[in-house]
Specification:
- The complex is a heterodimer of chains A (about 200) and B (about 290).
- In chain A, about 20% of the residues lie in helices and about 30% in strands.
- Chain A is of the alpha+beta class and about 200 residues long.
- Chain A folds into two domains: about 60 residues, Gyrase A, domain 2 (2-Layer Sandwich); about 120 residues, Cyclophilin-like (Cyclophilin), CATH 2.40.100.10.
- In chain A, the strands form four sheets. Chain A has a four-stranded antiparallel sheet with strand order 1-2-4-3. In chain A, strands 5-13-6-7 form a four-stranded mixed sheet. A three-stranded antiparallel sheet of chain A has the order 10-9-12.
- In chain A, a hairpin with a 2-residue loop joins strand 9 and strand 10.
- The longest helix of chain A is centred in the N-terminal third of the chain and has 16 residues.
- Chain B has about 290 residues and is mainly beta.
- Chain B has a seven-stranded mixed β-barrel with strand order 12-19-16-17-14-13-20. In chain B, strands 7-6-9-4-1-11 form a six-stranded antiparallel sheet, with no helix packed on it. Chain B has a five-stranded antiparallel sheet with strand order 2-3-10-5-8, with helices on one face.
- In chain B, strand 13 and strand 14 form a beta hairpin.
- The termini of chain B are far apart.
- The model of chain B has no long low-confidence stretch (mean pLDDT about 95).
- The chains are: A alpha+beta (about 200), B mainly beta (about 290).
- Chains A and B meet through strand 1, strand 3 and strand 4 of A and strand 15 and strand 19 of B.
- Chain A: This is Allophanate hydrolase subunit 1.
- Chain A: Keywords: ATP-binding, Hydrolase, Nucleotide-binding.
- Chain A: It holds the Pfam family CT_C_D.
- Chain A: InterPro entries: CT_C_D (IPR003833), Cyclophilin-like_dom_sf (IPR029000), PxpB (IPR010016).
- Chain A: GO terms for molecular function: hydrolase activity.
């Protein structure tokens, strides 16, 4: 684990894997809730957790340096279920990359248990991990100018659901009517970092 | 709609509603947003007796014109500009009483980029996640002002400040940005960091609320490939593949995959918000506090 200072009031904690970053994030949230850590923002990402708005960064960095990271992620919350029609336009390509018939893609995807590693790109857009390594796929060579809201998509190790229509280069395997982001709702984001997620196939898939 | 409202007569190049933003939601991919020149927004709020969190209007380069439906107290600050009420000159940097139905105009910025208009009671559009700020990256908050739009106003909180005038900032000849190195300075050669803190840059016309883009010598990387996406802070000096540093401002993305060579001191970002395209930029390295 490396703790890198960022400006005058932030720290970037870098670990060696995505799993470790998720465990570190859970541990930092726990410490903040217990009053052992002060940070305005705790922002997990692929291999790091950013602590922003830290009053005494050098002191906090020294305390973090030897922090033991629990190996087991908390499982206290039930998975969020997202119904999906596995009817995406990139289903045939993903099936070819996985070397399975197209109708198998939904079955394999829905069998995995996911966790929101981090959010970014757009409010409420979660980067979900949980697919086996052999199911990781590259981005499309040319991004689409408009991906419809509710599209369920793959890129690299991640699954994501587009909270609203936006440009995007991920491989689209399905769609959902679930509202991922609604600023009028509490909480606005359905998927927050650390949340467990399952995709449930619906309709002709 | 009540008569406590403001009709937009001329929206200007880009005028947005801004307050202190919505920090605390970065982990959900929500940018902080908020007034780019935060001290200027706080000052105009104080001039009209608003609490510091009240929403104001932020103009870009060429001002705007509005017509209150009933008499209001306003104050204009930030980038110096002509202020008129029904064509008659009114003071900049002081409380001004505008009669109902009169036309309040903010002229083009004489220097700087962004002028701020506070109205007693604040701009009372519906808050989103605790803030009324327009976030141009993610589209949260009210849309930028459009001609003919009507903005609701809140009830004035208290008496306006008794001041004669506030000092007008002089035209910034040079934008000096103090930086601390890292967190990804090791992705660049030592020459690249020296280039950043010794060579001359200019503010690019492609700058916006997301970032202050620069023109100048490109910074060469020593590490190829992409950085796994990581959290970004306000003031981060991110270096995209073209090598020209970009300073992240209030609407910056919460995560990014280009390395951050340095971070600008928060206290210098208000000046960055007022640096017009073409302004010389000098990055100077300071030790971490």
């Amino acid at each position: 684990m490396r703790v890198l200072p960022v400006g005058d009031s932030a720290l970037l904690v870098e670990v060696s894997s995505g799993e470790e970053a998720q465990a570190l994030h859970a541990e930092l949230l726990r410490r903040r809730a217990a009053g052992e850590l002060t940070a305005a923002e705790i922002v997990p990402a692929a291999r790091t957790v950013l602590l922003d708005g830290v009053p005494e960064p050098s002191r906090t960095a020294a305390r973090l340096a030897g922090l033991p990271i629990p190996r087991v992620l908390p499982r206290d919350q039930e998975p969020i279920e997202i119904p999906v029609r596995y009817d995406g336009p990139d289903l045939p390509e993903v099936a070819a990359l996985w070397d399975v018939p197209p109708k198998e893609v939904g079955r394999i995807h829905a069998a995995a248990e996911f966790r929101v590693a981090f959010c970014g790109f757009a409010p409420g857009f979660g980067y979900l991990t949980g697919l086996p390594d052999r199911c990781h796929v590259p981005r499309r060579p040319t991004p689409r100018t408009a991906v419809p809201a509710g599209s369920v998509a793959l890129a690299g190790p991640y699954t994501g659901v587009y909270p609203r229509s936006s440009p995007g280069g991920w491989q689209l395997i399905g769609s959902t009517d679930t509202v991922l982001w609604d600023p009028a709702r509490v909480p606005a984001a359905l998927l927050a970092p650390g949340a467990r997620v399952r995709f449930v196939p619906v309709g002709a898939g | 709609m009540t008569d406590r409202a403001l009709a937009v007569v001329r929206a200007g190049a880009l005028t947005t509603v801004q307050d202190r933003g919505r920090p605390g939601h970065a982990h959900l991919g929500v940018p902080r947003s908020g007034a780019l020149d935060a001290p200027a927004a706080a000052l105009v709020n104080r001039l009209v007796g608003n609490p510091p969190e009240a929403a104001v209007l932020e103009t870009t380069l060429n001002g705007c014109a509005v017509r209150p439906r009933s008499a209001v107290t306003v104050a204009v600050g930030g980038a110096p500009c002509a202020v008129t009420v029904d064509g008659r000159p009114a003071p900049w940097g002081a409380p001004v009483r505008v009669p109902g139905g009169a036309l309040l105009e903010l002229g083009p910025a004489r220097s700087g980029v962004r002028s701020y208009l506070a109205v007693a009671g604040g701009i009372a559009v519906e808050p989103v996640l605790g803030s009324r700020s327009t976030d141009l990256l993610s589209g949260l908050g009210p849309p930028p002002l459009a001609d003919g739009a009507v903005l609701p106003l809140g009830r004035p909180a208290g008496p306006h400040a008794h001041v004669d005038t506030v000092p007008q900032p002089g035209p910034p000849a040079e934008l000096v940005l103090r930086v601390t190195p890292g967190p990804r300075d090791d992705w660049f050669s030592t020459d690249a960091f020296r280039t950043l803190v010794t060579r001359a840059y200019r503010v690019s016309a492609a700058s916006n609320r997301i970032g202050l883009r620069t023109e100048g010598p490109a910074l060469a990387r020593v590490r190829a490939g992409e950085l796994p996406s990581e959290g970004m802070v306000l003031g981060a000096v991110q270096v995209p593949p073209d090598g020209r540093p970009v300073v992240f401002l209030a609407d910056h993305p919460t995560t990014g995959g280009y390395p951050v060579i340095a971070v600008v001191r928060a206290a210098d970002l208000a000046a960055a918000a007022q640096a017009a395209p073409g302004t010389p930029v000098r990055f100077t390295v300071v030790s971490r506090r």
